[in-house]
Amino acid sequence: MCLPPRHRRYTRVLELAGQEATALGAPAIGTAHLVLGLVREDRESGTGLLAGIEPEALRALLPRAGRAGREGRTRPPASPALSLRAGVAVGAAQRRADRHGVPELEVADVAAAVLADPDCAGVALLERLGVDVGDLWCRVAADRDAGYVPGLAAAGRVASGEVSRPCSAACRSSSARRFSIVSVVPPERRSR
């Protein structure tokens, strides 16, 4: 079966996130593992959306679960399922893709959904690394939206930085909040 390029990229993100969760002994793929998968896939595909974020630095900040009982295994463990929070983020990304009539889940949709949840482990991990998550969310959202607007990327607006890096305080406060409200932030957190 030949998958469309975008679907192959998303499938690869899940595969890489599963590898990270398994290597760290996690019982499920969490948002931090999704971030690691996104960063690794970004490096493989050369898109540069998450450039400057080193997988090794992220991995070093994650706790390792106990390894008891794993030494005697003869076959590799199955890839773990998504955690509840990671599942919510992927679900929000899928609903956004569906609303735009995109049959395949976009990597940028998943990244934006994870980044829109200020309380998830993936965002906490990036913040511990010193990443400006609001700025990163704006870049990811602009890249994602460029894929939904015919001719936007072709017009050179993304390449020139006019769209991909518009991240002022207004972008972080209004656009990020607007996306968060519809996707994954619980009602008590919406007033931020």
CATH class category name: Mainly Alpha
What CATH architecture do you see? Orthogonal Bundle
- Counting helices, strands and paired strands, the structural category is mainly alpha
Count the domains: 1
Listing every helix as H and every strand as E from the N terminus to the C terminus, the arrangement reads HHHHHHHH
Helix content: 40-55%
Unreliable sequence segments: 67-75, 149-192
Estimate what percentage of residues fall within beta strands: under 5%
**Alpha carbon gyration radius:** 17 Å
* CATH fold descriptor: Double Clp-N motif
Overall form: globular
Structure description:
Residues about 65-75 and about 150-190 have low confidence and may be disordered. The protein has 8 helices and no strands. The chain has helices spanning about 5-25, 30-45, 55-60, 85-100, 105-115, 120-130, 135-150, 170-180. About 55% of the residues lie in helices and about 0% in strands. It is globular. Helix 2 (about 30-45) crosses helix 6. With about 190 residues, it is mainly alpha-helical.
